[in-house]
């Protein structure tokens, strides 16, 4: 069975929690890490994902790495745009993990692309 390719956008403080959890799941491989500060992505790569590619542009990462699942670990105000881009650029079967922001307009906007592709959106 092919490993599930995962990507992480945002390699700051919370990234270690995501990458630790990903590392505990058999058959799941982090293939790409993205952060606006390349040194943070390099540090996460060294500690958690030595074979992952490093990016500073999440759109380029989505296009090139073509992950099966995307974890968005950036500040909340960035989640909506990044989630919309991931849904628009990747396969319908792509998994998307994020904690949505608290602003109602962000929540409704983030749900629209998923609904347009026939995907179920659930608030957690």
Q: Secondary-structure blueprint of this entry?
A:
Blueprint: E1 4-9, H1 15-23, E2 28-34, H2 38-48, E3 53-55, H3 58-65, E4 69-72, H4 76-89, E5 95-97, H5 104-116
Parallel strand pairs: 1-2, 1-4, 2-3, 4-5
Helix pairs in contact: 3-4, 4-5
Task: Give structural notes.
By secondary structure, the protein is of the alpha/beta class. It has a single domain (7-116), classed as NAD(P)-binding Rossmann-like Domain (Rossmann fold, 3-Layer(aba) Sandwich). It has helices spanning 15-23, 38-48, 58-65, 76-89, 104-116, and strands at residues 4-9, 28-34, 53-55, 69-72, 95-97. It has a 5-stranded parallel sheet with strand order 3-2-1-4-5, sandwiched between helices. Strand 2 (28-34), helix 2 (38-48) and strand 3 form a beta-alpha-beta unit. It is globular, with a radius of gyration of 14 Å. The model is unreliable at 117-124 (pLDDT under 50).
- Strands of the largest sheet, in order across it? 3-2-1-4-5
- Averaging pLDDT over every residue, what do you get? 83
Q: Can you tell me the residue ranges where pLDDT is under 50 for at least 5 consecutive residues?
A: 117-124
Radius of gyration: 14 Å
- Count of β-strands: 5
Main beta sheet? 5 strands, parallel
Number of helices: 5
Shape, per Cα inertia axes: globular
Question: What name goes with the CATH superfamily?
Answer: NAD(P)-binding Rossmann-like Domain
**Helix fraction?**
40-55%
Determine the oligomeric state from the structure: single chain
Helix/strand-derived class?
Answer: alpha/beta
Order of secondary-structure elements:
EHEHEHEHEH
CATH class: Alpha Beta
